[in-house]
Amino acid sequence: MSTAAKAKKPAPVTPWDRVQVARHPLRPMMLDYAAACFEEFLELHGDRHIGDDGAMPAGLAKIDGRRCVLIGHEKGRETKEKLKRNFGSANPEGYRKALRLMRMAEKFGLPVVALIDTPGAYPGVGAEERNIAEAIAFNLREMMLLKTPVVAVVIGEGGSGGALGIGVADRVLMMENAYYSVISPEGCAAILWKDRKHAPEAAEAMKLDAENLLRLGIIDTVVPEPGEGAHSDPGKAADLLRKAIVGMLDELDGVAIEDLLSARYEKFRRIGEFAHFQPAEPEPERSGG
Q1: 98-131 as b/e, with b when 16 or more CB fall inside 10 Å?
Q2: Which residues of 8-38 are buried (b: 16+ CB within 10 A; e: fewer)?
Q3: How much is the average pLDDT of 227-231?
Q4: To 5 degrees, how large is the angle CA 217–CA 220–CA 225?
Q5: Short-list 211, 220, 215, CA closest to 18
Q6: What is the pLDDT, as a whole number, of residue 5?
Q7: Residues 261, 208, 230, CA angle at the centre, nearest 5°?
Q8: What pLDDT score does 80 carry?
Q9: Cα–Cα distance between 24 and 222 in angstroms, integer?
Q10: For the whole model, what pTM was predicted?
Q11: Cβ atoms within 10 A of the Cβ of 277, count?
Q12: Which of 52, 98, 215, 261 is the most exposed place for a label (fewest CB within 10 A)?
């Protein structure tokens, strides 16, 4: 290989690179995919308790002729829209609205599709006063017991409990340049190294990219992206995502509810289980002499 050819060889893509692409300002968002992947999307509003949450759009949809319930995080693109969507960080109302729609899906026998893209749930005083932790925890329990198929896709950022609050699913997918983690790389670096400049090292150590999470059994499949990422060809990215979602819904179609719930429970119980160790036999006591 010539020196020039070697110079053109692309550098390896690191987990930190994936994080940067996941945050790209032109990356397609939840409502972009709602329009491009689904034939219909009728948004419904309100949690029937406090109010509506623009960071968590949800409603009735149709994909490949199959009716479903679609929920997800929306960050917004322009400043006004970002403020309306709270930069994708949902309040308790968002998670309670999502659960209301999921229960509707269960009642009418519709599958649920969740598109995850959030840096995390909103940590403000108002959210704490209205029990954000309880809202997320309640969703985790109720989604584990939901008697209808659930497919979740991390389409961008998958941050902490804010992502998990709609992420308990029979099939968990990740787009190639998404990340999914208990904390952001910057947050991890600030805790461990006391300096956010170590975020790239934190990202590497956290194994937060799709390739690592697939290997660890946290997710079920990786959805490929075109070119330099979904932002480089949104139409192609939407087509790849639609095919992946439809494939998973086809796979879950017709599975008995009892089997679905049992497999979902076992799926999440296995997370974090790496190996079993056989305790060593105690050495026999030696007699004095």
Answers
A1: bbbbbebbbeeebbbbbbbbbbbbbeeeebeebe
A2: eeeeeeebbbbbebbeeeebbbbbbbbeebb
A3: 94
A4: 120
A5: 211
A6: 46
A7: 90
A8: 95
A9: 19
A10: 0.89
A11: 5
A12: 215
